[in-house]
Fold these 4 entries.
Entry 1:
Amino acid sequence: MGRPSRTRRVQASVLDVSVRITLVLVVGLANLAGAVVVWLLGVLVLPTGDIADPDRMRLLNLLLLGAYLIVAAPIALYWGSRRFRMRSGADAEAQHRTERRMVLYGPLRLVTVQGVLWVVGAALFAALNLNFSVRLALSAAETILLGGISTCALSYLLCERILRRTAERVLGDATGPGRRFLPGVVTRSLVFWALGTAVPVSGVLQASVAAMFYGDISAARLAVIVLIVGLIGLASGVLVTVGAARAVADPVNAVRKAMERVELGDLEVTVPVYDGTEVGQLQAGFNTMVAGLRERERIRDLFGRHVGRDVARAAAATAEVRLGGEVRHVAVLFVDMVGSTALAAHRPPGEVVDLLNRFFGVVIGVVEEHRGWINKFEGDAALAIFGAPVAVDDPAGRALAAARRLGERLALELPDVDVGIGVSAGDAVAGNVGDPRRFEYTVIGDPVNEAARLTELAKAVPGRVLAAAGAVELAGPGEAARWTFGDAMTLRGRLEPTRLAFPGMDSAGSGGAMTENRAIAGEVAG
């Protein structure tokens, strides 16, 4: 029997092709520039006074430089690409963790490759120049190492910027609490200061110590050495410092701009999360905050749709919700559909619900148009309040105008639906009723009861709209002029008689219509 075949795990890069090409070009050019600077620095600064044939020394070093670049470039390319390859076959969660670790530590992984090659180069040049002078070999190794450290620091920052989009992808939806993967901002700032500024300055200090120890460097040459090394230190220090500062400033500015959009009401904004330090936690924390605001706004919207936006705003603005209420001057509009029981018995439930939704849609539109508030739906009826929870001018006039407009729209838009609309006004108690564990904002008082009884009468009169004369008397003159008073009668369940009021009609038809309304209303009341 043959051996069982093993499933071959394919290695794939976690980086896109465009990102890989960009990394190769940027990192390659950065290290090539560093090598050129180190070479020029060696030619201008390194001591050659005790060497018998300096031209031969420079030629051999130049040949070694060319040969090493030719060999090191493909090694760096192959080794660097291997640092981002991940084996397939593991579970998705493990692969995601591996991918995230590779990307977030990607700049450090590449810098490790570059650092090893710089150290190997320093060792090779030291060995070559040891044939000419121990001092020259040590100076060459020192110069290469200092240049390599500064180049690696700059390369790290460049790699970090190039990998931002990839880091954003592997960090997921960017709404979690965020986890710190890399050293903090303070540590990173100190390290980059040391690599970009302190290392070149140490080169100046070592040149000064060598001049004092050996005593063979003239003041003019020492000045040139200090000038050249100082300028290189300033340049590298500026580049590294600016890069390190931008690494912190860019995400902070992104969060600041996103906060400005949130202040303007845009709750769909998010910031990309691509940093593995506290800055990344800030980015993720901002996204978590905005997600919470979106959820709160959604809940507030749903709450407002259930109890009314005015009630929702008042509840949100109150530090402590208390049961009970206060006496408010309000107007009440009650509307009830006629024959809904028979309708439900003869039509499919879905069709009945659709009809009720269209009916309530008209009611809500008219009530909100006149600045009223839908207190509750009661099966096929609706209770609307004007003057609570938000006070309005002329609540009685607004309720009467809404009743007239509602009768007109229902007759036009839902001609198959018959309704009754009643309006009353007066003092009522408005507040929270129930228990601290479950309560609702409502209005309780005589105007509510009177409007409900008027709705029963209105189902039998032409126009299907009735109001209490007291409500018309409380309304503004403009709206009151549109109503005509009728007879007084005692409504069911009440002790005191209520004088009726009907929407006004033209003079030609007022007499007959009023007589008919009175007769029908009296028959129903009786």
Entry 2:
Amino acid sequence: MRTWTLRGTTTSYLVGVPDHGQWAQFVAWGPHEDLAPVEVVGTEHFVPRADVEPVEYGVRGVRYTSPVELVVSGPDGSDEFRPVFVGSSEDDHLQLEFAGTIRVVLHYRMVGDVLERWVSVLNDGADDLTLHRHDSAGFVVPAGNTVKYLWGEWNSEFQQASVPLPRGRFTIGSAQGITGHSYSPFLATDGPVAYGVQLAWSGSWEMSADVDTTGLLRIQAGRTSSSLGLRLAPGQTWESPKAVGACSAEGGDGLARAFHEYERATSRKRTPHVLYNSWFATEFDIRAEHQLELARRAAGIGVETFVVDDGWFVGRSDDAGGLGDWEVDPAKFPAGLDAFIGQLKDLGLDFGLWVEPESVSPSSQLAAEHPEWILRTAGREPVLIRNQLLLDLSRDDVAEFIWSTLDRLLTSYDIKYLKWDANRPRLDSGDQRRDLDGLVVTNLYGILDRLRDRHPEVFVEGCAGGGARVDLGMAARVDTLWPSDNTAPLDRLRIQDGFRTGFAPHLMSSWVTDAAGTHDGRERSLDFRFHVAMAGVLGIGADLSRWTDDQLKTAARHIEQYKGFRELIADSKVYGLDAGVQYVDARKSVVFLWETGDGNVRGTLPTRPRRVPLAGLDPAKNYRVGNETRPGSYLLQAGVVFDDSADSHCLVVEALD
């Protein structure tokens, strides 16, 4: 067997092609020093050999009874193809090429400890072909069969769960034309070495974990096509989105850190500004003077960017109108938006704006002028969600309209922050013979890429009715992501814990509000709310006109402290603790501890002082924690005291050596 090794920072991935050349085969994956080849021994019965071997990318016709990643049919109705290995190349990444009527190229690139995999399929024949299944990759996981995943719903995203899978199949996905609230495109295993796979796609998708009869786990990840499949014309090439896999000898926490490092590598290095967003204070009742009063209070506590949310444009007094008509409402800004932005500048604030450019209100002028731009099934009443419809972003003219609208706003006004929202799924969508999902997401990515290129100074936040479009495809194209509309402290803490398993803190937009919990409504202090939000990209969303002077002073204190370590939060290694989370770089560490109230009530029974061991420190160094100096070895073993003087703490740990 000919083999290739992709070597990462601490892990390696080995892939080979047997001498017969009928398929690529998984060999090994893990820490450099612990690589152990995966072998299937014994004689197969009743099934072909390919159905028991750890095949890298299964094609129907090579594999039959075990999971496959590619199913293609031709004009004769057959869905069996048998491409054979014809060569490899190793320019900027490894490519393994298999040829026949179809030409299949397997692509591999190692970034840090994360392996990117994708596939391209070329129709080398004279007839149309149809792709019925077209995954990006199948990752063989050499150890572990308890599958971890993230599930949720609106206001409850990123809930962590696991399912033991001794044999059989477990599948998650989205058929909504958007990543969705229900599941994240993320599957992982835990153990001494943890493995995980994510998919970089913001449309419909599917991921499956399958344990075969030998006990070997396979994770498949890819786009889902329409019910009619994807047509591939002669000479045409189709390329999948990237699936990325990672492993870590430091367990699930280490796996998260590997993904975080990868996401930082694909992101812009931007220092996050503390923002204020007026939505929770005003909703659609936007009046320039009221907004300015909120801005004065926000500036007084140290906020740097003021964001006007939904309701600033004509026809938008509630959620039933206005979308598509992106003109400033003169009734809400009588002196004009430029004058308002000037007043914010006088306060030392940058200006940000909310948009939802993919959607359209049925009563809007845009809908009247361009009914052909609305995505719908001909002859049927369109499905309304939140009183709105979608523009057909598969059309180039619609993509150009969205781009030109955003470009006009960003050119006409001094906008430094753009909150891009999307409040409905893609459902009734007409003709399924086109690659609607592929065209829509490709155009979406194209607009975001143009925004970054033409307006590099604008900070872009991705939002979708909360966390319905959080994935690696978006993470590479926006500066921050909105995990959930739920900002209540205890609910949000659970959401953020789940978010961090796959996504880095620099992507995690988090606000301090006065919201009561959807699931856990127990009261927590303003300090607790700030510490939850400071663990990501800090924003304020409360109605500051209702806050007391003491609350405003508390806010100012926390904002000042956050500015002192926000770059560490964005760039450091993250460790989960028994009662909190720790951010670590070479010289400094920030520790957040939260009393969630899930344990025994303190002081009612005999007990010992509660201590929380820290992580990621050098045991040979000395560290300052508050007024104390402790060896790293002590802090790693004995930890810090978590007393009951407050329901949360923020500790700064500084190396002295």
Entry 3:
Amino acid sequence: MSVVIRRTAWLAVSLFAFCTASANDALVDEIFSDTASPAGRIQLADAGDDMPDPDPETADPNDYPNLEFDLEELKARLDALEKGHKKATAASSDKKEFPTFRFTGFTQLDTAIYDQDPLNKATVGNAQNGTGFRRARLAILGKVAEFTSYQLEMDFATAGRPSFFDTYVEQSNMRFLGTMRVGQYCQPFSIDALTGFRHLTFLERSLPFLAFVPFRRIGAQSSYLSEDEMSSWAVSVFRTGGFQNAPLGDNRFGTDFGDLGGFSVSTRATHLVRYDHHADDRYLWAIGGSYNYSVLGANTADGSTNKVPFYQTRVLPEFGPLGNSELSQPFGFANNGTPAFIDSGRYPANYFNLAGLETVYQNGPWGFQSEYMVTVVESDVGPIFYNGAYAQLAYRLTGEHRAYNKKNGTLERLVPFADFIPLKKDGVRGWGAWEIAGRWSFVDIRNPEALNGHYLNGTSNAGNGTLHDTTLGFTWFLNTHTKLQGNWIHCMLNNEVTGHSTANLFVSRVQVDF
């Protein structure tokens, strides 16, 4: 009996040690380190040797219970080692290798047809019909460590060269600071600004965004999401100037030069007043507020054309320019794509304050979003007040809703219940998702007469006035990553010099993202 027990124990230990690819001798020593029997410590023969048989005449039957006890102890140790081995193997398989990366991108092919009344043509220029790529972007993003991520994004739709967009490094899980980001990115201001281009309800963002928001700049940001994920907050410090020290719009060159001023701070906070945790973003109501303070900058080097800090805003009618949008054109000309309908003129200024309130509401297939923004510019002739607002309503005919990003406080992708599948042999199996929407927006940009005589670079108050846009649109989501859009934009311009005029834009887009 003792022979069977001893050989069984030896075979079990040897087999387990071999299977775990461990050092057999070390494993056996660990198992038998303090195992003893009344006859003394059991000594195992080397692998491949025969176990010695006991002399049946001298064997003591009283040893059998002790040997059986030793076997139970060995079995317990084997079980413990096996569990430890499984945990180590699982931990090893779960360990991620860095750096990681993945590619993403999207293209947007736009077509525009303009219908302007004669006075509108005389005021803003004769806008030309056209087709072209509004955006064509590629990005690579990933992690270099567990809490360190990165993104590099370039756009190829701007004629002549790629342009910098969201390019940054991010460190998360930081005490008190939450997530830190350094690089070029969208500044924390406005839900309209922070909603990704590929997820917009309309082809372009609203008039207040186009008129007032600094948008992408080089800086450093700290963002935080509360433990219950109902509130978010972000603050950013960044360089004010964009292309040629422009205070607003994208900084597509990823650089900013100037010894004079040129620093800003922006912050935004959001809170979910209502959120159904069991409905996957389908029912929610969120509110938020943003504030931006910008000290305007200038490049004082010899040969610079921007030696004086200045402010200027130009507003397009909610349809973006095609082609080389870096080539600016004076107000009243339309030789380079969509013309500006509003232009404040360029004038000396020291700083500006920008504030905004926002709300977003989603009730199943219904969605509502609205914002109000106000800017106060401290100019050489005193403070100048501008303001604007928009409200939009959307309904998904097929019943879907948009996802909500709690960290960014923005609405995101719509996922169709069924993809559009036109070629199934048994007939059409899905029509994708359909969304219809309407938006009204306005901006009021009128300068005081005291500013006459202070304009820079040949600009004037010729583009001052108010602009109201009403937009009707539809979106057909063929699948999660492909959509067709169409917008009818009716523009009502009240120019301070020429008076009231109207224009209609019929625009479309084909988009695919991955």
Entry 4:
Amino acid sequence: MLTRFSAANRTALLKKMDMHELDLLVIGGGISGAGIALDAALRGLRIGLIEQNDFGSGTSSRSTKLIHGGLRYLKQGDVKLVQEVGRERAILYKNAPHLVVASPMLLPIYRGGTYGYFASSVGLYLYDWLAGVERPERRKMMNKREALQLEPLLKSEGLKGAGYYYEYRTDDARSTIDIMKTAWQHGASIVNYAQLTGFIYKEKRVAGVHVVDRITNESFDLYAKQIVNAAGPWVDEVRKVDGSLLGKRLFLTKGVHLVVAKDRLPIRQSAYFDTPDGRMIFVIPRGNVTYIGTTDTAYQLKMDQLRTTEEDRDYLLRAVNAMFPGVGLRVQDVCSHWAGVRPLLYQEGKGPSELSRKDEIIISPSGLITIAGGKLTGFRKMAEKVVNLVTSQLKQLTGMDYRACTTDRVVISGGERMGHNNYEACKKAIWKQGISRGVDGDTASEWVDLFGTNTLRVYNHLGAVKKKGEGLTGEQLLQAQISYAVEEEMTATAVDFLRLRTGWTYFQVKKAEENAGKVICLMGEKLGWSKAVLEQQRAEVARLLGTIYHLPRSDNELENPID
């Protein structure tokens, strides 16, 4: 029996799925696929999931990292969406306290801005009411003096006041992997680096998929009664393979974020504000950094060409310097950055920022079910709709009844309170246990923030590296963390460890650079990499780190490179 969500078990999992027909196979290992896998597993379905890269490696690790109600959707009159995502935000805050952190947000109000003072007051009140916000976190309105007292860095010219309300910060990549682990714990079979190469049909209906293991190059045929395409920005590519890219299709918009040191943009809380061209962006403090985003531009290049450009960077720097004129951010202040795409549904005549963030289910003539659109906050509800459809179709095929959705009541892996009255007390107890086992305070804090109660499982990997009577070295701590990542989070490459499991290449670039060589060596020992694979891993890490410092001028330059 495969008891661990380990990279070493990947091939065995594919062989297991190859042996028996699944009730449901999900293509895509982002947040949507993870949510579907969890929901289906809880309802008792034999569920499998394949992801062509690593879990959350696409859109699900490149968002603004907010679980938020979407204030701008209220302005667009989308009351139902605000209400739904507000409820979803509360559910995730309850079930995954290690992944969702309350983040006070300032909405500065300027003469001639997007939101007037009265409209902001009414809008934030409605926002709180629709989203079911608890009283301590309900909005407060401030005059100009109060706003500047709270945030002295704000531009004072034209400032009328501010709204103060709450959003929730998250780690999108960690959210995806922890939901995958929860689905795994409930019986889902899940594999990364397993790429769809074609569909298998019976009587013109999809009945299975041809899959290649991108690490071993082995091929497998997986059969399922129902197949769901949850490939995010790649859903249209999957529909092409099925020959069903007809009618509705995606419109990809690109969003870029920058990271600067906190002392270069020392805001006291997050802020959501107008840019000179009338859009709105966030600045969000996180540990020792502040990140800025996002852009919203049409994206038409290939996914492997997706990059932050100088144009993107300069646009965001201008916007921040206009709102916080005393800061004077420069190009050299940018420590890191990321670019992602939003897989939105195309709507005639609408620009990138006007397109709806609603999700939609598309069923092809072959029976392939595609879930397209949507947003991070609404992933659970999206999954519920998909699995409701799947179970209704399975009932027609098999006559079996399936349980209703229960994901609103399931604690996500790492969010358990372990007998404590509140999660903060649980965190403190786990941190103290780390100190008692020789882990330094900073590492224990980082682990608790990353892994929640799963930090205890990381501690269990310390036994293999700690020598009796000696303290723990930095390399031993790293070895324990890597051991956990490989054996319990199916981490298969060094890039995935540095970017997705730790977030170091986003928020602690120096740490990523200093530890990259050790990560490759330790993972190589753990996974038995050959010299050729070690060289490949070094090249991939060097490429990732290189993109931080070398930006193309524009997307047009990427499309038409100069020799």
